[in-house]
Design goal:
CATH topology of the largest domain: 2-enoyl-CoA Hydratase, Chain A, domain 1
Helix content: 25-40%
CATH superfamily of the largest domain: 2-enoyl-CoA Hydratase, Chain A, domain 1
Strand content: 25-35%
Structural class: alpha/beta
């Protein structure tokens, strides 16, 4: 507004010099309208978004008062993509700058930097606004996040004393200012508090970047867990995620844990299954706890090794299209294991949730543990020519049984809580104990 008033005053003085005695307001209105009509010719037609953006960009380049350098060209294009994607109102569809896009590409291959956790922006509806919370899906095994005790579902509230801006702080202030019962002092205080909160805030993008890049000093986090806020000091590192591990539990019963669904997971699992078969294993317990999803193609490869020929599920696409997914082994080799039980928890997310539900619906496995994360959306990362990119929600998973698990998660057949200090695969792993008991039962 201030800049507009300054410009308005300058134009008035110019009009008075060039048109003595005339009404500056009338001249400004006429000249402004004439310029607007010339510049915007054709822009008021029913244009496609691509043509409209292209025309506006040409107008900006032709008429903006200063020269636009290549960096500004790139920045304008990035901002156009950012707002185009964010206008969808979907936290899973977002613009990625070059550093963030590189982080996503590395994560897809199982390589993590920073605290070593899969993070997601999750919407939480409030009475007057929507919170966008930076949430831990799952820590990567052996990472600083796992060693510091971060758990699936932890909401990162602060990073190094900076509030992670989950909503516009002025939303709360506006609620007070609209309240007729609030005193003028209360209204002024609400606005001042919002200003102070905004000054010590860090954006979601800034927090994400800080948590996924190496830092010289440990980070001080404040996380919210089950309604309580905890202070956690955490270092950063480069972590190569383990995709699969296995062992023999008892005679004839094997255990396979899938940590992450990457392009390497299918091949790694095939090697582990060959080793278990050579040791006489015929029945399996599959562990998908703290598996934060990953590639749908990897989930299909895993399903092909565990339940070849069975249905993995359906992916609903735009314009009423859908893909039906059948489990096919990458090498065509069928192992013939009986999948007795599958372990799941809150850290089982995305494609891993679809896989867990399919092992129950198509292979008869019993699901044991806790309700899963609740993300049935497939998100695809697209790369721009300059290294930046964006993610887009491109499909919705539906398991063979048809249950919609988005937001609600996949419900286990047997709910078994873990002791607070227990980790998957540890001696006091009650969920694994229950799964082993199921595996010992004769096949139905």
């Amino acid at each position: 507004l201030g800049a507009g008033l300054v410009a308005d005053a300058s134009l008035r003085r110019a009009c008075e010099r060039t048109h003595p005695g005339a009404d500056p307001s009338a001249l400004m209105a006429v000249e402004g309208t004439t310029a607007s009509a010339d510049v915007n010719a054709g822009l008021d037609a029913d244009l496609s978004p691509v043509v409209l953006v292209g025309k506006v960009l040409k107008v900006v380049k032709d008429y903006y008062v200063e020269d636009i350098n290549p960096f500004e060209n790139s920045r304008m294009a990035h901002e156009a993509v950012r707002y185009m994607v964010s206008s969808l109102g979907d936290p899973g569809s977002r613009f990625l700058d070059e550093k963030q896009a590189q982080v996503y590409r590395e994560m897809a291959l199982g390589r993590f930097t920073g605290i070593g956790a899969v993070l997601m922006i999750r919407d939480q509806k409030k009475p007057d606004w929507t919170e966008q919370e930076l949430t831990v899906v799952a820590p990567i095994e052996g990472s600083p996040a796992a060693k510091a005790g971060l758990q699936p579902g932890d909401v990162i509230v602060e990073v190094d004393g900076k509030w992670v801006m989950s909503h516009d702080p002025y939303s709360e202030a506006m609620k007070v200012t609209r309240d007729h019962a609030a005193s003028p002092g209360d209204k002024r205080k609400a606005v001042k508090d919002a200003e102070e909160l905004r000054k010590r805030a860090i954006s979601l993008d800034e927090a994400f970047t800080k948590l996924t890049t190496p830092q010289q000093e440990p980070l001080g986090l404040k996380v919210r867990r089950d309604g309580r806020e905890l202070a956690i000091t955490i270092s950063t590192a480069e972590v190569e995620a383990k995709t699969v591990e296995s062992r023999v539990l008892e005679d004839g019963i094997g255990y396979v844990r899938i940590h992450l669904l990457t392009p390497q997971t299918g091949q790694a699992l095939e090697g582990e299954l060959k080793g278990l078969r050579s040791r006489g294993v015929r029945t399996l317990v599959v562990d998908l706890r703290n598996c934060p999803g990953g590639s749908l193609a990897a989930a299909q490869s895993v399903a092909g090794l565990l339940m070849p020929g069975k249905k993995l599920g359906t992916v609903l696409r735009s314009r009423d299209r859908k893909d039906t997914l059948t489990a096919k082994a990458p090498s065509g080799e069928a192992f013939g294991f009986r999948i007795a039980a599958t372990l799941v928890n809150k850290g089982t997310e995305g494609a891993a949730e679809l896989l867990a539900a399919a092992l129950r619906d198509s292979a008869g496995a019993r699901l044991i543990g806790e309700r899963t994360w609740g993300n049935a959306f497939e998100r695809t990362a697209f790369q721009l020519a300059d290294g930046a990119g964006y993610t887009l929600t491109t499909g919705k998973f539906v398991p063979p049984g048809g249950t919609d698990f988005h937001r609600t998660g996949v419900r286990p057949d047997a709910v078994v809580a873990m002791p607070p200090s227990a980790a998957p695969g540890s001696p006091d792993d009650r969920q694994l104990e229950r799964a082993l008991a199921v595996a010992k039962r004769p096949a139905a």
